[in-house]
Specification:
Blueprint: E1 6-9, H1 19-28, E2 33-39, H2 51-57, E3 65-71, H3 78-85, E4 89-92, H4 100-109, E5 113-118, E6 136-140, H5 155-173, E7 178-182, H6 190-195, E8 200-203, H7 205-208, H8 213-225
Parallel strand pairs: 1-8, 2-3, 3-4, 4-5, 5-6, 6-7, 7-8
Length: 226
C-alpha cells in the first residue's frame, strides 16, 4: 500500500543568505519535509551544512520533518550530532559505512527514522538484510554532490525493483517503508517517477528556482497523484 505523497524541498537550492526565511516560506507554501543535504568534500566533491546549521534552522521548519541526507564518510560520528540538532530522519550511503547494520541501529537508537541511500550505480542488494531496520529507501536519480542536475532515466526500473521489495516486506511484516527519489525531480517528470513506485520526492531547483513556490509544490503533488 502506497503511503501519502511527501514533497521535500532541498535547501541546497535555497538562498544561503536567507535560509531561515526560505524554510519558513517553503513550509508555508506546502512543503511536507525539509531536505537537508550534508556534504563533506570527501564522499562527494562539495561542502555544505553541519549540525550547528541544522540546529539553527530547525525552529524555522515548524512541524515539517528535517530529512537529513548524509553524504559523508565516515558516518557514525555525525549521527548523534544531527539527532541532537533536530533531525527527524537520517539517511546515509552504505558505501560510506563500515557496518551498515550498526549505523542504522545508531540512528534509530538516537530517536530518528533511518534511511539508506542508493546511488545510480549502487546495487539494490544492499537492502537484502536490513529492511527490518529501514523507515525509508532513497534512490539518487543523479550522482550526488550538486543540485540542478538532470534526472537519470535508468532510475525508473530500479525504482520499480525497490518498490517490489518494499511491498513484499510490507506484506510479510506489516511494516511500511517509504521510497524517496532525489535528483532532477520536476513537475514534468514526477508522474512517471511516482508511477514507478516513489512516494517521497526531493525537489530543489524545481521549487526554489520557481517564481511561485506554492503553485509549484501543488503542481508536483497533483502530478504525483495522477
Amino acid at each position: 500500500m502506497r503511503q501519502p505523497t511527501v514533497i521535500a524541498p532541498s535547501i541546497l537550492s535555497a538562498n544561503f543568505a536567507r535560509l531561515g526565511d526560505d524554510i519558513e516560506r517553503v513550509v508555508a507554501a506546502g512543503a511536507d519535509w525539509i531536505h537537508f543535504d550534508v556534504m563533506d568534500h570527501h564522499y562527494v566533491p562539495n561542502l555544505t551544512f553541519g549540525p550547528m546549521i541544522c540546529e539553527a534552522l530547525k525552529p524555522h521548519a515548524g512541524q515539517a520533518l528535517m530529512d537529513v541526507h548524509l553524504m559523508v564518510e565516515p558516518v557514525d560520528a555525525l549521527v548523534p550530532m544531527f539527532a541532537k540538532a533536530g533531525a527527524g530522519l537520517i539517511s546515509f550511503h552504505p558505501e560510506a559505512s563500515r557496518h551498515v547494520d550498526r549505523t542504522l541501529a545508531l540512528i534509530r537508537d538516537a530517536g530518528c527514522q533511518a534511511g539508506l541511500v542508493l546511488n545510480p550505480a549502487t546495487p539494490v542488494h544492499w537492502l537484502d538484510h536490513v529492511m527490518d531496520k529501514l523507515d525509508l529507501v532513497m534512490l539518487m536519480s543523479v550522482n550526488p554532490g550538486f543540485g540542478g542536475q538532470s534526472f537519470i532515466a535508468s532510475t525508473l526500473p530500479k525504482l520499480r525493483q525497490v518498490r517490489g521489495r518494499i511491498d513484499a516486506h510490507q506484506r510479510d511484516t506489516g511494516r511500511t517503508v517509504r521510497l524517496e527519489v532525489d535528483g532532477g525531480v520536476k513537475p514534468d517528470n514526477i508522474a512517471v517517477i511516482a508511477q514507478a513506485g516513489a512516494d517521497t520526492f526531493v525537489a530543489g531547483s524545481a521549487v526554489f528556482g520557481s517564481t511561485d513556490w506554492a503553485a509549484t509544490i501543488a503542481k508536483l503533488r497533483q502530478a504525483a497523484l495522477a
